[in-house]
Specification:
Helix content: 25-40%
Bound molecules: nicotinamide-adenine-dinucleotide
Structural class: alpha/beta
Radius of gyration: 18 Å
Order of helices and strands: EHEHEHEHEHEHEEEHEH
Shape: elongated
Strand order of the largest sheet: 2-1-3-4-5-10
Number of helices: 8
Number of strands: 10
Strand content: 15-25%
Length: about 230
């Protein structure tokens, strides 16, 4: 495939490396060449099978708008732009474009989501989420922590579920969900720790392979089983 990776930072650079290992032809654009999505022209996107975005919340919003307006297919790992999701879904639908987004492209975290839905079946417990990331992460709480809270809220709509965020060094990402009985007699804990960014990068490249020839909007957790 001809892939266009937006963002040459910690994750985007690894996405490009893994995509090349999987024999894709890869172009990478960073902020200097794509301010305000200026590089995403009809000509460039005509020769692009899919875009993969690991930039910033503001840049991702501009990139998604530009790509979908031209009917392109885009995989978005960047978090922090979801308030605009409805608008972007409509844009994908009206232009025959494709948007595949996820707060986390790691298969291990997809398992954590499933296990959390199972943990949420407990009644009478208090839930808490803790997340730890590197100090340069722009959004807090993490998108993954917000997804975990949504999963718990699906079974406990009225529960007050707090998220504690820590920003430490170069931490790659840790998420912990705890369920504690009100009497404090016991606690159940689910934890995922990312030891490198490779899991996210591989999942994003596989998502770009999956999206080929498709139009519509999907969240990664709904399709990862098909990869
Ligand atoms: N969904 C996931 O699995 C997952 C995993 C890791 C990171 N993330 C998210 O991905 C995003 C990027 O994370 P990171 O750690 O790689 O950040 P980073 O700061 O290392 O890299 C971001 C890069 O985007 C570039 N950029 C900014 N504006 C741009 C534009 N208009 N066009 C092209 N490039 C532009 C910056 O110059 C920088 O190089 C964050 O939102 C982070 O939360 C998601």
């Amino acid at each position: 495939m001809n892939l266009l990776v937006l963002g040459n930072g910690k994750t985007g650079s690894l996405v490009a490396e893994i995509a090349r290992q999987r024999n894709h032809s890869v172009r990478v654009l960073d902020r200097d060449k794509n301010l305000n999505a200026q590089a995403l022209t009809t000509d460039l996107l005509r020769t692009t099978d899919a875009l993969i975005d690991f930039t910033t919340p503001e840049a991702a919003l501009q990139n998604i708008r530009a790509a979908l307006t031209l009917g392109a297919r885009i995989v978005v790992g960047t978090t922090g732009w979801y308030a605009h999701l409805d608008e972007l879904k409509s844009l994908a639908a009206s232009n025959n474009g494709a948007l595949l987004y996820g707060t986390n492209f790691s298969i291990g975290v997809m398992r954590l989501f499933r296990l959390t839905a199972d943990l949420a079946q407990l009644s009478g417990y208090n839930f808490h989420i803790t997340e730890t990331h590197h100090t340069t992460k722009l959004d807090a709480p993490s998108g993954t922590a917000i997804t975990l809270r949504q999963i718990l809220h699906a079974s406990h709509p009225d529960a007050n579920i707090e998220i504690t965020s820590h920003r430490i060094g170069d931490a790659k990402g840790e998420h912990t969900v705890t369920a504690t009985s009100p009497s404090l007699s016991d606690t159940l804990e689910l934890r995922h720790t990312a030891h490198s960014r490779e899991g996210f990068a591989l999942g994003a490249v596989q998502a770009a392979e999956w999206i080929q020839g498709k139009s519509g909007t999907w969240e990664f957790r709904d399709i990862f089983d098909q990869l």
